[in-house]
Amino acid sequence: MERTLVLVRHGQSDWNLKNLFTGWRDPDLSEKGVEEAHAAGRKLKEAGLKFDIAFTSVLTRAQHTLGLILEELGQTGLETFKDQALNERDYGDLSGLNKDDARAKWGEEQVHVWRRSYDVPPPGGESLKDTGARVWPYYIHTIQPHVLKGGSVIVAAHGNSLRALIMALDGLTGEEIVSRELATGVPIVYRLNADSSVAEKTVMG
To answer: What is the set of active-site residues?
Structure first.
C-alpha cells in the first residue's frame, strides 16, 4: 500500500517576482517559476513517483505548475480536480499591492501581523485560520480518502493553503506554522499510516 501524498507550492509567479500581495488574483508563473515546476517534476520522476489523481486550486499559477510536473512525469492526462478550497489565502485589500507600499500605508508592524499571525485577517481578507477552515474539510472529505485506499496523490497549491494542510499533518500549533517557509516548486512527500497519521515526510529541497 503506497498511501503517498505529495504537496507542491507553485513555482515563482510574476507577482512573487514583483513583491506583490497576490491572494486570489491570478498571475501566471515567471520564467523562473516555469523552471522550478519542471525541476519538481524531474525530482519526482527520479524518485520513481507516479500519481493516481491530482488536486489543484482554481488559480493559474498552481494549475500551470501541476501541468509542467505531470509533463515531466509523462502523466499529462491524469485525472485532476480543481477547487477554490485550495486557493491561496485571500489578502483582501492588500491584493495587488507592493509589500513595501503596504508597509508605508499601514506600518511595518501591522503588515507583519497580517502576514505572520495565525488568526488576524487583513482588511477584507482571510487569516491563515480562515484559510484552514476551507482547506481542512476539503482534504479530509475529498483528498485523504484517495491516499488512505493506497493511492498516490499530488496536490499543487499555494504557500498558505499548503501551510494550513501541513499544520494539520505535522500537528503544529498556529504559532509554529506561521514561521514555516515553504519554498516554491519544492515537493514535500508524505507517506501516511492506515489511520491517516504521518509515517514519513521528505522535503525534496
So the answer is: 10, 88
